[in-house]
Amino acid sequence: MDTKPKLFSAGLIFQLLLVLVVIPLLPMLISWRWDWWAAWAYALIICLGFVFSRALAARKHPGLLAERAGSLSREDAKPWDRILAPAMALGGMTVPLVAGLEQRFAWTPEPFSLAVKLAAIAVMVLAYVFASWAMIENAFFSGIVRIQTERGHTVCTSGPYRWLRHPGYLGGFWSYLAMPLILDSAWAFLPVALLLAVTVLRTALEDRTLQAELPGYREYAGRVRYRLFPGIW
Predict the structure, then answer these.
(1) Are 162 and 224 in contact (CB under 8 A)?
(2) Which of 74, 127, 184, 199 would be a feasible disulfide site paired with 174, CB 3.0-4.6 Å?
(3) Confidence class of residue 18 from pLDDT cuts 50, 70 and 90?
(4) Closest CA to 68 of 126, 19, 1, 125
(5) What is the value of pTM for the model shown?
(6) What domains can you pick out in the chain, each with its CATH number?
(7) How many Cα atoms occupy the beta-carbon half-sphere of 185 within 13 Å?
(8) Are 178 and 124 contacting, i.e. CB atoms less than 8 angstroms apart?
(9) Distance CA 42, CA 131 (A)
(10) Structure confidence at residue 197 as a pLDDT band (50, 70, 90)
């Protein structure tokens, strides 16, 4: 039976609608505030970041998008990541959902200052650029943790992987922190806190898996000391 993932399956089209339409516009769809400039900035970062990162990654690694499209259906995906990966995706939707509700019902009377929002936008842009760089460099940047033996899985040591073992997660970490500030949502820090905890847990479990199962990774970990936070962990 052919188990090769299809790039344009119904599931993938649904995912694209979520990532490129629903999630970016969710704060405005819920609050019905279409003049909310910061929400438009958030939506633009997400859409452009997704499109450009995937286009550049596909150009350098033609099989990567197919791998990511069918990652959850892989039989060798780690059982714990079948829970954590969807949890992170759901958490990413919860942040704009809470922000939209907060705007609609005015839960936070005092918005963040313009300077704070502009700084958060800059942080989110840089975080997306950094995470995209990791994807573009790593031909095995799958959507779920598994050893991709059929693709000749090897250790990536170029780009940001020269300094950090999981740069994609670091980019996500900083983008999560920036979102509530851009969207004027103090309550959104609650799902963000859960997202950050899941990110740290997933990083630890993935790193342990790679050290145990991917040839050469343990030696790489001996050279590149830090998993997620430079100088700390």
Answers:
(1) yes
(2) 127
(3) confident
(4) 19
(5) 0.88
(6) 10-223 (1.20.120.1630)
(7) 30
(8) yes
(9) 16
(10) very high
